[in-house]
């Protein structure tokens, strides 16, 4: 008699689906290694700065952390942080609303791309801070000026990545969709936009970082409310420890932005080879 087949309970990992111990170890090591490296660098920095080799210009890491705790316990800190994050996110969102549809539109025909290439190449290299005096003259030194300056700086990475992503879609995929009777709009929706998404994701990640830098730099130079203004304020007061603590906050904002962008990219582009390779290598 033939033996009855063994039925695995639902959800039970089989030999082919369960992660191998070596894979689990690599994933655990991939998560712990950056943390261990960061802690090691901070410990070495603490010892070097405490030794006085670099003089008194650079406070110890522990002193910076203590100053950060003092700042965080102050309600005014959270108001400044809100001012910075608000200007950053509004300007970045405005840039995305402009750049992504415009990039797809300009990439749709060679005529549109070629006819606008000169003006885009003229405006793109202009540093955002170079037009800061004009922005202050037209919009003042409040939040609206920061928002538009941030939008101007963030629009170009997303615009170019969207255009080149749409242009780089495999021609065979376009022809295959056309042979199945898909119209121009359907090809753009089902082939071009998914094919351009990896480029767009990179542009969004770069634009978010640039937008944060421009936000804080504008606050530093113009004196608009936010973290940048507070950094300048404590610098003039000679409180270097608090200055470095606030710079650390700005760095943490940038790290959170990159981490959020990568998490969203991993979720949206789970089908892309780059995400599968990154997941397998962890």
Features:
282 residues; MetI-like fold; globular; disordered N terminus
Concise account of the structure shown:
The protein is mainly alpha-helical and 282 residues long.
CATH class: Mainly Alpha
- Low-confidence segments, given as residue ranges, are 1-17
Number of strands: 0
Shape: globular
Helix content: over 70%
The CATH architecture is Orthogonal Bundle
Backbone CA Rg = 25 Å
Walk me through what this model shows.
The protein has one domain (59-281): MetI-like fold, CATH 1.10.3720.10. Helices cover 78% and strands 0% of the residues. It contains 11 helices and no strands. The chain has helices at 21-51, 61-72, 75-108, 110-123, 132-139, 143-167, 171-179, 184-222, 227-236, 240-268, 273-281. The protein is globular, with a radius of gyration of 25 Å. The two termini are 46 Å apart. Residues 1-17 have low confidence and may be disordered.
What topology emerges from the helices and strands here?
Layout lengths: L20 H31 L9 H12 L2 H34 L1 H14 L8 H8 L3 H25 L3 H9 L4 H39 L4 H10 L3 H29 L4 H9 L1
Helix pairs in contact: 2-10, 3-4, 3-6, 3-8, 5-6, 6-8, 7-8, 8-9, 8-10, 9-10
